Amino acid sequence: MQRSGSAGAKRIFRRELTTALRSRSAWTAMLMFSLTAIAALSFALRGAPPEPQVAAGLLWVVLFFSAEAGVGRAFYEEAASGTLLALRIYAAAQAVFFGKFFYALFMLAALAAFDVALFQIFLGFSLADAFAMLLFFLVVFLGVWGLAAAGVIISALTVGAGAKSGLFSVLLLPVVLPVFLPALNLTGELFTQRLPSFSLLGAMALYDLILTLGASWLFDFVWQEV
Fold first, then answer.
1. Distance between CA 42 and CA 65 in Å, rounded?
2. For the chain, how long is the longest CA-to-CA vector?
3. pLDDT tens for residues 192-202?
4. Which of 65, 72, 92, 212 is spaced 20 to 30 A from 223 at the CA atom?
5. What are the φ and ψ backbone dihedral angles of 24, each rounded to 5 degrees?
6. With contact defined as beta carbons under 8 Å apart, do 115 and 107 qualify?
7. What is the pLDDT of residues 166-188, one digit of tens each?
8. Domain of 176, in residue numbers
9. Which pTM was predicted?
10. Is the CB of residue 104 less than 8 Å from the CB of residue 73?
């Protein structure tokens, strides 16, 4: 991004953060879904820790649907208040995309930390050592990076479809599958005390980068039609 674009992205990010602190609707939806889902899983399992691969799957399913509740609302405030046109006039497309993207990434990283803490409390899981913990958080970060990039562009594509439409979910899953599936596999390996595949980590990082760059390029065209 150019300097002006970077400054615009920072303003969009601060605006998103200020709006979130004022309304808290997206954060409340995400955190309550996570708490309800993980508590229900704990009761269903009667406090017994699930198998490592099952635990990995449960963690990423909760993260995916919690993220959907938050990132799917990326343009909700503007659509509800009728300010999309003003934002399109006064902010460059790239500034809007990267501002929304970095806010979504921040929001999903906080959500992931919350979900991991809940998993530790309600279901319990252990990692071999500090290096495994570092790798685990790297996997989680790469996973939410993909969710953030895909979520912002798909939210822009579906903003006119209505808040009750299931189109966002239908479009999001296939786009994030190349990140979602390796994240499931790597998390399961870490939960079983095995060293994960570094080639999969590299593939996740590469796909995230390509997805972010592709979404930013596509956003220039999508933003004019919103």
1. 18
2. 55
3. 888 778 889 99
4. 65
5. 60, 10
6. no
7. 788 888 889 999 999 999 999 98
8. 3-225
9. 0.87
10. no
